[in-house]
Design brief:
By secondary structure, this protein is mainly alpha-helical. It has helices at 3-42, 47-87. The protein is elongated, with a radius of gyration of 19 Å.
């Protein structure tokens, strides 16, 4: 196994992690920003006001993007297994 092959596998792994995590992180960041803006405008500083909407939004985004995320992970795993079969 060459060094270039290992680096390609690592690069693909990092890109897969980014592609899988991005929908959840963007959803959480957007909802958090909106709630923080609402809190700044109304000057209501309640801790649960930021937590509950983010939790609901993340759960909904998991329902919406879960299929995409699972497909990305399965595709990456299949590529790795194919590669292991070629090496061995």
């Amino acid at each position: 196994m060459s060094q270039a092959l290992v680096l390609d596998i690592l690069r693909e792994g990092f890109f897969t992690i980014i592609k899988v995590a991005l929908p959840i992180l963007l959803t959480s960041m957007t909802v958090g920003l909106a709630v923080s803006l609402l809190q700044a405008i109304t000057q209501v500083q309640e801790q649960t006001l930021t937590f509950v909407p983010k939790m609901i939004a993340v759960m909904l985004s998991l329902v919406l993007f879960g299929n995409y995320m699972l497909n990305q992970l399965v595709t990456f795993a299949n590529q790795l297994f194919r590669l292991i079969g070629q090496i061995g």
